[in-house]
């Protein structure tokens, strides 16, 4: 009887292990992407200009990329690269659903980040990237060629001060090439100047200006001060409200 009992116990254990193994196998459900569909563009010659930065430059459409296995959310991204570069270093624009209207400013920013020459005609390629999880194989659509002329998106701040008569309209400017609130430039304070105070104005008027001290900017801060006469490199970051002044 003991032998029969132990045999039954052993058989039962094997069955339990087999059932557990089957249960584990049943929970392993994988997802995979099918082929990306055909990407189309509403125009291949979008008109770009700074005054129309908030307007739609081009609308892209595509069919949903199929997913096999468990249902997964597909993330779509538009990739932009120089024509013939084979998307080695693409710039990306977020997309959603099966259509995305790309703003003039967003497309122009991608073009500038690619290093395209301002006011010069160039060709870029756009494709759709479909993915369901990080570090997994993505699916890519066909490439659409756009002919574009990027514009300068530069933003400026102005440095009115005693050295130039406190006139924002005629003050030296610092430039932000991508208009991302980070500005750089060089200013010369004449040797005849004895008052070195100045401020940072966001427009060529007094609508908004910043003072401060010790590398920190503040709308209510005291006038900033150049270390003396000469030529200075200035860096202003209106994201962190900081600044630096370096003698050249």
UniProtKB/TrEMBL annotation:
Has keyword Signal?
yes
A Pfam family (short name) is: SusE
In its keyword annotation, does this UniProt entry include Repeat?
A: no
Q: What span is annotated as the signal peptide, if there is one? A: 1-23
List, for all copies, the residue spans of the domain called SusE outer membrane protein. Answer: 24-129
- InterPro entries per the UniProt record, alphabetical: SusE
Source superkingdom: Bacteria
Keyword set for this entry?
A: Signal
Question: What is the official name of this protein in its record?
Answer: DUF5116 domain-containing protein
Q: What is the lineage of its organism?
A: Bacteria, Pseudomonadati, Bacteroidota, Sphingobacteriia, Sphingobacteriales
């Amino acid at each position: 009887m003991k032998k029969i009992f132990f045999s039954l116990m052993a058989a039962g254990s094997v069955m339990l292990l087999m059932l557990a193994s089957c249960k584990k196998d049943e929970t392993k459900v994988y997802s995979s992407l099918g082929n990306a569909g055909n990407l189309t563009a509403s125009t291949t010659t979008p008109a770009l200009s700074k005054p129309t930065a908030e307007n739609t430059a081009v609308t892209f459409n595509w069919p949903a990329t199929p997913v096999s296995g468990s249902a997964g959310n597909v993330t779509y991204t538009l990739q932009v690269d120089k024509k013939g570069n084979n998307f080695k270093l693409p710039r990306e624009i977020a997309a959603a659903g099966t259509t995305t209207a790309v703003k003039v400013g967003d497309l122009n920013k991608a073009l500038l980040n690619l290093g395209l020459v301002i006011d010069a005609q160039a060709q870029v390629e756009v494709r759709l990237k479909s993915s369901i999880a990080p570090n997994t194989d993505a699916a890519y659509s066909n490439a659409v060629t756009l002919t574009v002329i990027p514009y300068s998106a530069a933003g400026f701040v102005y440095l009115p001060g005693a050295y130039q008569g406190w006139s924002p309209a005629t003050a030296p400017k610092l430039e932000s090439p991508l208009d991302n609130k980070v500005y750089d430039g060089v200013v010369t304070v004449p040797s005849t100047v004895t008052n070195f105070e100045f401020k940072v104005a966001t427009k060529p008027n007094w609508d908004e200006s910043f003072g401060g001290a010790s590398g920190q900017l503040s709308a209510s801060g005291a006038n900033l001060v150049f270390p003396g006469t000469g030529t200075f490199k200035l860096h202003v970051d209106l994201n962190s409200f900081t600044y630096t002044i370096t003698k050249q």
